[in-house]
Design brief:
Largest sheet: 6 strands, mixed
Radius of gyration: 26 Å
Shape: globular
Length: 497
C-alpha cells in the first residue's frame, strides 16, 4: 500500500527505468517510527541514482541509510536468468526472498541497479487496514500544509488539430482542441537563487556508457525541456522590461514534468513554455491586462521561433492559452492590423468520441514541415491555393460542429488529410504517418494528422469498430487512446490555470 498513492505515476516509473542501463528499485524514506530492521534498506549514490548496497532487514548499526525498498521492481528480460542462479544457491525455500535476491545481485554480482525515490509512505498489504491508510493520508496532508515554501503549479495541455492545420503558419484558419490525456506541468517555488532543475528523463547529464549516450541522443536529440524554461524566463524578463513592468527582486526554482509524447506533433514544447509563463505571471502578479491572451500566444511562439529556432505556427499556442475547443482565423489582414488573429472558443458539449494514435519511435516532428514555407513565400500557386482551401475546410468544419453533423465533420477530416498529402508529398509525410492513416481507413474511420507528424487523430462514426481498431494499432506498434477533451469551464482546478 502506497500512502498518498495519488502521487504515484506508473508511467513515470517506466520512463525512468527505460532511461537507465539496469534494473530499477522504488524506495522511500522511512518515517521516524519505522525501524530499518523491518525493511529492505538501500544505499543510493546521489549523483547517478545507482544503488551501491542492499541490506535485507539489517540489524541496527549496519547502515546509516533510512531508504527502504517498497517491493516494487522493474527488471530487464536478460536479468531474469539470474533468478535461476540465485535459487540454485539456496535449496531451502525458507531462505529464499526477493530481498535476499537483490542483496545477492547488487552486493555480490555487482549488477547495475538504480533507485527511484517515492515521496510517500509504504506498508505491506495484510499488515494494514483502512484506518491505517486514513491515518497515513492525514499525516502526509498535514506535512504538506506545514511546509512553509508555497509553490505555484500550473499545467498546459497537449492539443489536437481537428481541422485546417498546418495553415496556421500561412494565414489560414484552424480548429484545435486541448486534451487532458497529456499535459506539461511546471512548478515554481521561491528560493534564494534562481534555479532551473533538469528533468531526470528529458535532460540527462549522466549515461551508463558511450553507447547509451549514442542511443539516447539518436532517439531524443540534444534538446530537452530545460532550454524551454530558460528561454521563457529570458523572454519574460525582456517583455516586462520593454513593457515598463517593474519586477520584484524575487528568485525562484523552476522544475517541470510532462507526459506528452515527444516528437509526435502534440505541442509538447509549447505546453512547457505555456505552463512556465503561467507560473511566472502568477509569481510576479502579471495580470491578463498586462499580458492579454492573444499577445500571450504570440509570446509563446516567439520563445520557440526567435530563441530556439523551432519550426512552429500560432495554433498550438493559442489553444493552450485559451484552452478547450478553439476556432482560429489567421488571415493576413487581421495579422497585419492587430498583430494576432481572431480566436473564438466553441461549445464543447456533446462532442463525438475522437481517438488518437501515435508512433512509439517517431522522428523529429519539426522536420515534417519540409520546404513548404519557402514555396509559400515564393508564391507557388499550388501551396497558396492549398492554404486557402484549408481555411475553407475549417469554416465548413465549424458549421458541422455547431450543427452536430458528425458525418460531415468526418468527411472534412479526410479531405483535410488528402489536401495535405497533395501539397506535402508522401516522401515528406513519411511511411509511419501514412501507415497509420491507411490502418484507420480500413476500419472506416476519418483520420488526419493532429500536428506536424508522428500521430494521427480520428473520428470513427461507427463506435462498434473502435475496440477492434485499437487492437490493430497496438499490434502495429502504435500507442492508441480515446481522447479526453479538456474543457476549462468544467475544470475544478481553474485556480491553477
Amino acid at each position: 500500500m502506497l500512502c498518498a498513492d495519488q502521487n504515484f505515476d506508473i508511467a513515470q516509473v517506466i520512463r525512468f527505468f527505460r532511461s537507465k542501463p539496469g534494473e530499477l528499485i522504488i524506495y522511500y524514506e522511512l518515517e521516524e517510527s519505522e525501524k530499518s530492521s523491518s525493511r529492505g534498506i538501500v544505499e543510493v549514490c546521489p549523483d547517478n541514482h545507482r544503488i551501491t548496497r542492499f541490506l535485507e532487514k539489517p540489524q541496527e548499526g549496519l547502515t546509516a541509510s533510512r531508504l527502504a525498498s517498497v517491493v516494487f521492481y522493474c527488471i530487464q528480460r536478460d536479468t531474469l536468468s539470474y533468478l535461476s542462479d540465485f535459487l540454485s544457491l539456496l535449496p531451502q525455500a525458507t531462505d529464499r526472498s526477493f530481498g535476499r535476491f537483490w542483496e545477492w545481485l547488487i552486493n555480490e554480482k555487482q549488477l547495475g541497479v538504480f533507485g527511484m525515490k517515492l515521496p510517500t509512505g509504504f506498508q505491506l498489504i495484510g499488515q494494514v487496514g483502512l484506518s491505517d491508510y486514513t491515518k497515513w493520508l492525514t499525516h502526509y496532508s498535514t506535512k504538506q500544509q506545514d511546509n512553509p515554501a508555497k509553490s505555484i503549479t500550473c499545467r498546459s495541455y497537449a492539443r489536437v488539430g481537428l481541422m485546417g492545420n498546418p495553415s496556421d503558419g500561412f494565414n489560414g484558419k484552424t480548429i484545435a482542441m486541448s486534451i487532458s490525456n497529456f499535459w506539461a506541468e511546471v512548478t515554481l517555488v521561491e528560493s534564494q537563487t534562481l534555479v532551473l532543475v533538469p528533468h531526470p528523463l528529458n535532460d540527462p547529464t549522466e549515461f551508463g556508457s558511450l553507447q547509451d549516450l549514442f542511443c539516447i541522443s539518436r532517439k531524443e536529440g540534444y534538446l530537452g525541456g530545460l532550454r524551454l524554461l530558460q528561454a521563457t524566463c529570458k523572454k519574460f524578463y525582456q517583455f516586462c522590461s520593454k513593457q515598463g513592468i517593474a519586477l520584484t527582486k524575487q528568485n525562484f526554482t523552476l522544475k517541470y514534468d510532462t507526459n506528452i509524447p515527444r516528437q509526435v506533433g502534440l505541442a509538447g514544447s509549447s505546453a512547457i513554455v505555456s505552463a512556465t509563463l503561467k507560473c511566472l505571471m502568477k509569481f510576479y502578479n502579471i495580470t491578463d491586462n498586462d499580458l492579454p491572451r492573444p499577445i500571450r500566444a504570440n509570446f509563446i511562439l516567439n520563445v520557440e521561433t526567435d530563441e530556439l529556432f523551432i519550426t512552429a505556427g500560432l495554433q498550438d499556442r493559442v489553444v493552450q492559452v485559451y484552452e478547450g475547443l478553439v476556432y482560429m482565423d489567421f488571415s493576413k489582414k487581421l495579422m497585419e492590423q492587430q498583430g494576432y488573429g481572431n480566436y473564438i472558443s466553441m461549445d464543447m458539449s456533446g462532442l463525438p468520441s475522437f481517438w488518437l494514435a501515435y508512433l512509439s519511435d517517431p522522428s523529429d516532428s519539426g522536420r515534417i514541415h519540409s520546404n513548404i514555407r519557402q514555396r509559400w513565400l515564393n508564391g507557388e500557386p499550388q501551396v497558396v491555393e492549398a492554404m486557402k482551401a484549408f481555411a475553407e475546410l475549417t469554416d465548413q468544419a465549424r458549421a458541422a460542429l455547431q450543427d452536430r453533423d458528425w458525418s460531415r465533420l468526418a468527411q472534412l477530416m479526410d479531405l483535410n488529410f488528402e489536401l495535405r498529402r497533395s501539397v506535402y508529398s508522401d516522401d515528406c509525410l513519411g511511411p509511419g504517418n501514412l501507415k497509420m492513416v491507411q490502418l484507420a481507413k480500413q476500419f472506416g474511420s476519418a483520420v488526419k494528422l493532429p500536428g506536424s507528424g508522428g500521430a494521427v487523430v480520428g473520428l470513427c462514426v461507427d463506435q462498434a469498430r473502435l475496440v477492434e481498431m485499437r487492437q490493430a494499432f497496438q499490434e502495429a506498434g502504435c500507442v492508441f487512446c480515446v481522447i479526453a477533451p479538456y474543457n476549462p469551464s468544467a475544470s475544478n482546478v481553474s485556480s491553477q490555470h
